[in-house]
Amino acid sequence: MSRFGSIADTPATFALTGARLIDPSSGTDVIGDLAVLNGRIAESTELPPDVSRVDATGLIATPGLCDLHAHLREPGMEGAETIATGTRAAAHGGYTTVCAMPNTDPPLDEQARVAWVLERARDAACRVRVVAAATRGREGERATEIGELARMGIAGVSDDGQAVASGRVARGLLAYLGPLGLPLIEHAEDPGLANGTVMRAGPIATRLGLAGWPPSAERTIVERDIALAEETGGWIHFTHLSTAAAIEAVRRAKARGVRVTCDVTPHHLALTDAWVAGDRGFAWEEPAGVAAEPFGTTVAPRRAYDSACRVNPPLASRADALALLAGLADGTIDAMATDHAPHPPERKEVEFAAAAPGMIGLETALSLGLAAVAAGCLGMLRLLEAMATTPARLIGEERSLRPGSTADLVVFDARATWRVEAAGLASASVNTPLLGMELPGVVRLTVASGRITYADGLDTIN
Amino acid sequence: MLDIADSAPAAAAPSTDRWPDRHLLDIDQLSRAQLEQCLDLAVELREQRSRRSAPRLLADEIVGLAFCEPSTRTRVSFQLAATSLGAEVVDLPIEASSVTKGESLADTLRTLERTGVTIIVLRHPMSGAPYHAARSIGARIVNAGDGTHAHPTQALLDALTLREALGTLEGKVITIVGDIAHSRVARSNLHALSMLGASVRLAGPPAWVGPFASWPGVQIADRLEDAMAGADAVMTLRIQFERAAAGGVPTLREYASRWGITEERMRLARPGAPLLHPGPTNEGVEVTAALAAGPRSLIGTQVSNGVPIRMAALALLAP
User: Same domain, yes or no, for B171 and B160?
Assistant: First the structure.
């Protein structure tokens, strides 16, 4: 039996015994006990004698996950998701914080709208931080009142859904943001190169007759923004990078000391453009079928052109997905962020090119990460660092298992598997090509600020 | 030797055993034997139709023509193919999905299916739409051209036309000229021609041929003359004016001067090599008017073969 709670609930008091405690903040990975008292991590000896002690043998306990990029769709697109359903999806996925992106209707481009979202999120199933729009109406021209918004605790500004197309505007934003300590979160994509395209350019796009998105669409904006960050001293954060060339540009810029960070989505790490032709192998697996022979074999009629695979930026080539995994492993890529993008059936059950781009990710991100770990592409500690401690640090939150820290936890079974099914998802939308697949990693408990926001099978905690 | 082998089983009529798949989405789903079965059946049905004795293989079927894009020859040939096999044929008024319109393609097709339509012939401006349709409804789907992806019945009629002109496609060199990248005809032909043993040369503006460099059995020629030299047949494709304007080639005039098929260029091909074009032609751009109307042109034969090929395809697909 699973249940959800909220961050407005009474703080829980409990102890976990025998868990594998992985804490990227200290680089530790030990078997031990962990106590939660008054919203904080405590020494077990501090607990009153009658509190519940839960045997967590075989489970991993680690700081709560933090998503830098989620679309909660409220206000305006409540048919796809709401703050309530989206944060439940987050809690189900092990997240204790999500950053809500501003491309709602109306967009989150002024203080009252940001305040409205924060108010709605007060009893949500995880903390919600707002990424405000970088420009009014997300039109790429006039900046929002970034200084005022910063006082409200926004995580950054972004015109996500598109890049800040004008270099002059992007330069102005970076210069203004610099002293505020907030990033411009850039959806790096040159509209002139990307408009009209629907999947990654390459042999599979050629085979399928779908207009191909060239990697230069991402790289040109990344190189431009690195130059602007270097000139202005501003902080540029690239979200959902999907190409080896962009990662290489970030790697070089970091080496020069430019204020640049970036994230990658789980689907760009694990899935590839061959999924559009119906393939269902992960990037790290030996390619078979159309992934191995883009022109040689029959595309799978039952799965080809599945609009659940339409996402922006488009799913990467296998070579680029492997470069993303390497970039995440070596720290060039700072964080994993879901780009959780729910869409209702009427936006997805249409022709591939007519479908809205995006897939949900909050409930499957940890599982895809664990699959990459199981395949040897990534260390467990590094995965959890990229999903929890590093993204939290980027938005000014702390994550640690040390006594005295805020009790932000996820407890999961890395060895158990689950089948992704529409009925089992807390999100209001089901647009993911992972439906029907068996994935590793079952979340048993999520704790945000000491409140139990999700529990599955650990019901003795109260 | 081939003649003997080919003519020996003449007594046996071509098989009308149904194809295993419920839908005809692209050539790549067929085996070589299934593809050749369709060509053989088309020859038989063509002859029967000329005697007005085509079998009523589709007497129990209602064929819906769902053309979301303008089409003359494909639509008419499907209509004639279905009626000559005894089917009832209806026009299905549908549009491609759009965000502004409430009803999706799948919704519309599901509604129309309730009227008893058993086979839907779908022409659609977006690649992959027939795959989406096939997943959404119970009726059988025949892809009559989807976006820039596939046009399987065109490839079948081209294969029939070429087989009859050349005797066989085994070992032949077929040159395809023009905007391959945006051509559903070219993609389906690449599957069909290579399946039948031909090798393919491509020529055209770099942006329109470059993406096919790794397609097995395909050679890309930088110069049209290299692609034409010794070719057994030449197929040129229709240029969409708006695509030319959007890139690929500076002007249609420049296209005609670099890649237009002329008498002089046809002389580089094998003597007597036929010229094909899926139509409609832009005369003076892809091909000169004189060539298109001349003795080496099989453009008219392609159109004529459209009906029997679609008869055969519908017959092999019927429930």
Answer: yes
